[in-house]
UniProtKB/TrEMBL annotation:
One of its GO terms (molecular function) is hydrolase activity. This is HAD family hydrolase. InterPro entries: HAD-like_hydrolase_sf, HAD-like_sf, HAD-SF_hydro_IA, HAD_sf, PGP-like_dom2. Its EC number is 3.-.-.-.
Amino acid sequence: MDRAAVFDVDGTLVDTNHLHVVTWWEAFRQAGHDVPMHAVHRAVGLGSTDLVAHLLGDDRDRDQDARLSAAHTALYGQYFDRLPALPGAGELLRRLHGDGWTVVLATSASGAELGALRRAIDADDAIAATASADDVRQGKPAPEPVEHALELAGVPASRAVFVGDTVWDMRAGSRAGVRCVGLLCGGIPRADLEEAGAEAVYADPADLLARLAGSPLG
């Protein structure tokens, strides 16, 4: 039976989390909101609407949501031509593809942003499909992005592993019933990833690749 390796992208395969922190912080600042960067960092990985709600609360002026998201997109878009892949990202995906895994991306990115991320990874030959924000109604930590990735791969949860870097990733994967692998390269502590459902934790894609045989993807 086929098996699927499902990957988050931001902070997992591409070193973008801190770019998101700075650009979201600036978007909030421009709109008159003083949101600490450490709080933004912990929220990275949520979809735009959920991130704004998480940081500003349910009593916020929701008419600002779209403007905040657009400001973040414009600020972050300045980096599209130089997004850095994390060490070993492309090599890991190609190795898994060669080992018979169906590699699927599950990301809140879409459109031009997703295109820039895929160019940074430079492993399109190994990626079978992508479950983007445009494909689901609810983003992580809801299980829908991971479940949609499994549908695209055509495999059950029992034959899949999800790799991510945030607690939102681990919760989404756990709720979808898949084994979860956490990476530290997004800046979230090991203990937080494990508490959220990570079965194993590695430094970055290169570390996972180097220790692949003993990992859930071995």
